[in-house]
């Protein structure tokens, strides 16, 4: 497709690898159904939208005289979905209904890199803002825009190169697409458990999953990525070509430097594992959380846990209603797992104790969730070592201060295991800087259309205070894939000592700051 008005050239860098062959899967035929919780929380579009706010997309581009949406539609091979057309509301809807009122001028369903280039050229000529979307799971709403929404979802093919053993995944593929494609191959790449999360955001932010402690982050398996940068050039970034862009693509966050169109990974063999879901009654909470952290720290590559404190029902939260739960994956037999978990299992008799051996992909299905969904706000922190008794007591105290609402608070305080093999990479070897940490701590509040604006405001104020109170127990870092628009000092929290190099990459590949949103990488680090 020629774009004579844009002045943008189509250039591919050479690469020694052969073209991807033997396509073994495409996009999943059907999406995962929304849970009752998500349906309840989402409610009517208008009700959810009332609690959102407008967000600018990437910066408007300078360029030739404007052209209209009709011209863009003619340039695209994929569909341009406009307001009032069938499918527009579904295409525009984000995972977090809090941002559902941010409606784009149109949604460009890009089927290849030429469509991406056409969108960038149009945005330049029209002087329009834009945002890039894969799965739409940016919790802070940065994959929504009042301008052009560039959706890469149609680029979801997954191909295997038998000569190199590498797998190339289209930028629009989801976790479910990858599970469907890999299931019969005996291979996998480290990925998340939410079926609708897209590979683009997952990889670019690092990529946590239950196999991370054993096999590393999603970005650790990345060997190359195809990306259209602000100048319209299609680049294949790897350790050899455009190495700085490749470095930034592994933890530097989405939407900062380019629109990625494909990712090439080195998969790992799969194996049988043991999955577990254990829930204890509402007592001995501090001791049980200490036990679970200690088990994770002593067996970092053998187990992967998601442990939390959560109330059993909706309504006011009290210590007497807070249960301890751990969910996860163990790389050994059920008997071995029971031996590892002996201390917490002996301390208190669980009310749920599911421990089952499964093949890798059946285990993945067991662990699947669409959580979070609906309307919510969250914060995240990192912990080196573990949270001590004082910190857990502080968490419980703040949970009891939750101001109330209509939804059961399932994610008030979660610890995701983030050490093990993740720590085998140095903090500066990739843009993902949090290599010295052992856990991600998530704090969340959620609501539904039943809750008044005042209730929502009180919940958000509570979350801000809760997060601030916990800072003395955690590192001053946050996971960029759990973003918050209200995070203080967000640039250093997400990227730490890698901020300076990320700004250098920005100046090299996006010197005009085309890819810009409220928490995008700046051209120069603040003094």
TrEMBL record:
Keyword list, A-Z: FAD, Flavoprotein, Oxidoreductase
Gene3D superfamilies associated with the record: 3.30.465.10, 3.40.462.20
Keyword hit for Oxidoreductase: yes
Entries under InterPro entries matching the protein: BBE, FAD-bd_PCMH, FAD-bd_PCMH-like_sf, FAD-bd_PCMH_sub2, FAD-linked_Oxidoreductase, Oxid_FAD_bind_N, TAT_signal
Domain of life: Bacteria
Keyword Lyase: no
Cofactor: FAD
MF-aspect GO terms: FAD binding; oxidoreductase activity
Domain FAD-binding PCMH-type, chain residue ranges per copy: 100-270
SUPFAM superfamilies, sorted: FAD-binding/transporter-associated domain-like
Pfam families, per database record: BBE (PF08031), FAD_binding_4 (PF01565)
UniProt-listed PANTHER family: BINDING OXIDOREDUCTASE, PUTATIVE (AFU_ORTHOLOGUE AFUA_1G17690)-RELATED, FAD-BINDING PCMH-TYPE DOMAIN-CONTAINING PROTEIN
Family according to the record: Belongs to the oxygen-dependent FAD-linked oxidoreductase family.
Name the UniProt record assigns to this protein: FAD linked oxidase domain protein
Species: Methylobacterium aquaticum
């Amino acid at each position: 497709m020629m774009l004579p008005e844009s002045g943008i050239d189509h250039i591919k860098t050479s690469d020694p690898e052969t073209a991807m062959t033997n396509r073994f899967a495409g996009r999943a035929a059907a999406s995962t159904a929304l849970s009752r919780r998500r349906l309840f929380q989402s409610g009517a579009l208008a009700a959810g939208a009332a609690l959102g706010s407008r967000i600018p997309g990437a910066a408007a581009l300078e360029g030739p005289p404007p052209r209209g949406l009709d011209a863009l539609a003619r340039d695209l091979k994929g569909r341009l979905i406009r307001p009032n057309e069938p499918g527009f509301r579904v295409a525009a809807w984000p995972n977090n209904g809090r941002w559902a009122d941010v409606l784009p001028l149109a949604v460009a369903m890009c089927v290849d890199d030429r469509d991406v280039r056409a969108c960038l050229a149009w945005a330049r000529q029209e002087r329009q803002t834009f945002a890039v979307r894969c799965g739409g799971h940016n919790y802070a709403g940065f994959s929504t825009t009042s301008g052009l929404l560039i959706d890469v979802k149609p680029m979801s093919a997954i191909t295997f190169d038998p000569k190199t053993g590498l797998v190339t995944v289209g930028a629009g593929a989801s976790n479910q697409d990858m599970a469907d494609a890999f299931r019969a191959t005996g291979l996998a790449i480290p990925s998340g458990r939410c079926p609708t999360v897209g590979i683009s955001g997952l990889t670019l932010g690092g990529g946590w999953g239950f196999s991370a402690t054993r096999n590393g982050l999603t970005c650790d398996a990345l060997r190359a990525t195809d990306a259209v940068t602000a100048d319209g050039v299609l680049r294949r970034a790897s350790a050899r070509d455009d190495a700085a862009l490749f470095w930034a693509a592994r933890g530097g966050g989405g939407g900062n430097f380019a629109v990625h169109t494909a990712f090439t990974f080195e998969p790992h063999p799969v194996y049988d594992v043991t999955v577990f879901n254990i829930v204890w009654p509402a007592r001995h909470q501090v001791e049980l959380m200490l036990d679970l952290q200690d088990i994770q720290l002593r067996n970092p590559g053998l187990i992967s846990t998601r442990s939390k404190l959560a109330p059993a029902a909706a309504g006011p939260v009290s210590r007497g209603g807070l249960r301890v739960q751990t969910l996860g994956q163990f790389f050994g037999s059920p008997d071995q797992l029971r031996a590892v978990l002996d201390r917490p299992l002996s301390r208190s008799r669980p009310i749920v104790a599911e421990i089952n051996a499964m093949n890798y992909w059946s285990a993945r299905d067991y662990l699947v969730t669409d959580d979070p969904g609906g309307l919510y706000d969250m914060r995240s922190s990192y912990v080196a070592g573990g949270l001590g008794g004082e910190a857990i007591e502080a968490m419980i105290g703040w949970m009891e201060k939750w101001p109330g609402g209509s939804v059961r608070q399932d994610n008030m305080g979660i610890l995701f295991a983030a050490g093990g093999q993740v720590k085998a990479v140095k903090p500066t070897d990739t843009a993902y800087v949090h290599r010295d940490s052992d856990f991600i701590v998530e704090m969340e509040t959620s609501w539904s259309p039943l809750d008044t604006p005042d209730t929502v405001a009180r919940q958000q104020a509570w979350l801000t205070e809760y997060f601030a109170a916990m800072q003395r127990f955690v590192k001053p870092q946050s996971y960029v894939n759990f973003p918050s628009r209200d995070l203080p000092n967000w640039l250093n929290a997400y990227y730490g000592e890698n901020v300076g190099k990320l700004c250098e990459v920005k100046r090299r590949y996006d010197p005009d700051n085309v890819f810009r949103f409220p928490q995008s990488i700046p051209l120069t680090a603040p003094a």
